[in-house]
Amino acid sequence: MKTLRLLIHGRVQGVWFRESMRLEADKLGIAGWVRNCADGSVEALIQGSDAATSAMLAWVRIGPPQARVDRVDQSADEGEFSGFDTLPSR
């Protein structure tokens, strides 16, 4: 299992990013969570197989149709997660 924390920058709030990411995570079998941040970015934690996390990263770099992703910062993380949740904004 691979676990990554992502910070997604660009026009990523108000464009259905979190719900679209939740649906994509469900399709790929990714566990974790996603939430909006006060600075306009979106933070997410994804956990899954190497193939699934690679596919999720590829999706995150593009996002839903109305989004514009400028940059994705990623770092390794740990923990055990089941399901994929949308958390309250931070």
Please provide a brief summary of the model.
The chain has 90 residues and is of the alpha+beta class. It has helices at residues 17-28, 50-60, and strands at 2-11, 31-36, 42-48, 68-76, 84-86.
Largest sheet: 5 strands, mixed
Total DSSP E strands = 5
- The low-confidence runs, each spanning 5 or more residues with pLDDT under 50, are none
Strand order of the largest sheet: 4-1-3-2-5
Quaternary assembly = single chain
Roughly how many Å is the radius of gyration? 12 Å
Average pLDDT, rounded to a whole number, is 97
Distance between the termini: 27 Å
Please trace the helix and strand order, writing H or E for each element: EHEEHEE
CATH fold label:
Alpha-Beta Plaits
Question: Secondary-structure blueprint of this entry?
Answer:
Layout: E1 2-11, H1 17-28, E2 31-36, E3 42-48, H2 50-60, E4 68-76, E5 84-86
Parallel strand pairs: 2-5
Antiparallel strand pairs: 1-3, 1-4, 2-3
Helix pairs in contact: 1-2
Polypeptide structure, described:
- The protein has 2 helices and 5 strands, in the order βαββαββ.
- The protein is of the alpha+beta class and 90 residues long.
- The model has no long low-confidence stretch (mean pLDDT 97).
What features would you highlight for this structure?
Alpha-Beta Plaits, globular, alpha+beta, five-stranded mixed sheet
